[in-house]
């Protein structure tokens, strides 16, 4: 399981860490605040399960913010990097690393349910996305939130065109799974309609939000004469993230879904 994203521009995308223009990080922070506000000071720790979290791009920042984080990933090398990053950040005691695939999630977590479950860069690699999503839902506490981040088919098509790989773009657009060929490392890329339908088919979840991740922020030239302040860019990115068709052309699609209480 890997972390994967495709930028529309040829310039490398910035790392997916919490920032003023990262709507995913903002959404996760809002959820942490909401969970803590419902609890007493003696029970303030938010329990996060990061499936396919690899080297900890999301897990370590969440642990720094006080969460108890369990990362499940099939790569021993990625988990070794995770442990090192957690130690360097001073949060090794708040990060647990488990080597397993998503279909063994219930076994390795001993049935413990998390307040927040991440499936970032996961559904692109699994054989059965519906089964993987069901495993995530089962591992989510009643009332808890699932955060999904998937590679966007249309953004990947545009990226291939911009880089001159027209043949790959054509194959990717025509292929039902959004792949450019047999050597493509991803099993699928999705669009907003596909990921929304997948969540709605999982009976225990209710869809809360669909937004684009880094819709415009990576397209702004580094030395733009009228780039405005970071707050200006953050406001633009937040609006674009939920405004079709811009949302639907983002490099990745972010979905938030809530598990029912009953």
- Most strands sheet: 7 strands, mixed
Would you state the CATH class?
A: Alpha Beta
By CATH, the architecture is named: 3-Layer(aba) Sandwich
Number of helices: 9
Percent range for helical residues? Answer: 25-40%
In what order do the strands lie side by side in the largest sheet? 3-2-1-4-5-7-6
Low-confidence stretches: 1-19
- SSE order in H/E notation? HEHEHEHEHEHHHEHE
Roughly how many Å apart are the termini? 31 Å
CATH superfamily: Vaccinia Virus protein VP39
Structural class of the secondary structure composition?
A: alpha/beta
Number of domains: 1
Radius of gyration: 18 Å
| Fold-level CATH name | Rossmann fold
In round numbers, the mean pLDDT is 88
Give the overall silhouette.
globular
| Strand count | 7
Tell me the fraction of residues in β-strands, as a range.
15-25%
Could you outline the blueprint of secondary structure elements for this entry?
Layout: H1 23-37, E1 47-51, H2 59-64, E2 68-73, H3 76-88, E3 95-99, H4 105-108, E4 114-120, H5 129-138, E5 140-151, H6 153-162, H7 166-174, H8 192-201, E6 205-213, H9 230-241, E7 252-259
